[in-house]
Amino acid sequence: MKHNKIISNIILSIFILIIMLILLEIFLNLFPKFTFYYIYPSELFENAEAPLDFRMTPNFIGKMVGEYDIDIRTNSNGLRDYEHEQTSDNFRILALGDSFAFGQGVDINDTFLSIIEKQLDVEIIKAGVPAYGQDNQLHYFITKGKNYNPDMTIIFYFLNDNEDNYGLTDRKVAYGNLIQKYRYEALPNWKLYTYTKLFRTKTLRLIRQTFSNIATYFDENKKTKSFDYKVFLKSQTKESREWTKTAALFKEFKKNSGNSKLLIVYVPDKKQIYPEEFKDFFDINTDVDKPNKVLKTVAEFLNISYIDVTKEMRNLKISNLYFRHDPHFNENGYKLFAILVGNELIKYTED
Questions:
Q1: pLDDT for 210 beyond 70
Q2: Cα atoms found within 13 Å of the Cα of residue 134, Cβ hemisphere only
Q3: Which of 175, 189, 229, 319 could form a disulfide with 196 if both were Cys (CB 3.0 to 4.6 A apart)?
């Protein structure tokens, strides 16, 4: 009798837990601003040939809702941009990058590329695509970007690009969702379909992220082994394993740049602007500006112009430059970054 009661209580507890999770999912869908992560609109991306792997869908119209509620539109070439003619009399810049260059979290007119375009009175091809590393960007540059005959090509680098360049975070599109490439290639169709549906379940994403953070907190090895942590180590150089692939890709950019002047612009991580908020991440073995320094040596070695406004942004001590949960700039951050970078770019556009 007692045994049956225990089983009944367990079943009841599981049932209550399931109901609570369903209610939480309903709540997060009704009030998306309480969601602690971001997810891209279904159908924003489509598969492409390797090594590009995926691209944004041409003429897409949709919304991205999380800590923000923004419209996303792409042009006929699958860029979050207006239409450009193949040739132009304007000073033309091809801007390559990931979700920062894409302008995640803000309306198109508030992205740093749109602001710089107005600030310098130039034409910018805004080719920022979320989750692209320099490997994807190089392929786009060679096959499509060069066709715009840009006077200047700017690569906006963010520190997770190193991980992307090694293929550790490569993506493909399954049932309208951008997912890990290794899952796309390994899972049979029915498992892939199930995974993509669960992938968009906000409650499960939230639980997974919570447990991941807890595991890292209690296991110091998880932090020290992470790619994100290693690029901040004082011992890092351009010959370090974490940098060799990225350095090689920039060398290929230089080789294929032709008459287009090449620049690298460093996009700072939130940890670098507010290091006091990440005391558990940094230790005596790390340097908050180490990725910037290594990238600068790569640029100097390849004779590529380099812009880094991280210290300026940090020294201004302006709060609230990033979203609370989403790691990207908010509207204030995009504007400040655009102004500082634009001030540096003036001397290159006037040459």
A1: no
A2: 29
A3: 175
So what's the pLDDT on residue 51?
Answer: 84
Nearest-angstrom CA–CA distance, 334 and 323? 11
Give the C-alpha separation, 49 to 70, whole Å: 29
Do the strands 171-174 and 177-180 form a parallel or antiparallel pair, or are they unpaired? antiparallel
Backbone φ and ψ for 72, nearest 5 degrees, come out as: -125, 125
Q: Is the bond leading into 41 cis (omega within 30 degrees of zero)?
A: no
Alpha helix segments (H runs only) across 80-133: 99-102, 112-120
**Taking the domain 45-349, which CATH number applies?**
3.40.50.1110
Residue 203 · residue 17 · CB < 8 Å: no
Q: How far apart are CA 70 and CA 189, in angstroms?
A: 32
Q: What is the pLDDT of residues 81-105, one digit of tens each?
A: 999 987 778 899 999 999 999 999 9
What are the percentages of helix, strand and coil residues in the chain, rounded to 5? 50, 15, 35
For residue 26, the model assigns a pLDDT of: 76
Across the chain, what does the average pLDDT equal?
A: 90
* Contacts (Cβ under 8 Å, ≥6 apart) of 25: 201, 202, 203
Are the beta carbons of 68 and 333 closer than 8 angstroms?
Answer: no
Terminus-to-terminus CA distance in the chain, angstroms? 88
Measured distance CA(86)–CA(283) in Å, rounded: 50
Distance between CA atoms of 22 and 18, rounded to whole angstroms? 6
168: nearest Cα among 158, 178, 185, 180: 180
Cα–Cα dist 56/185, whole Å: 20
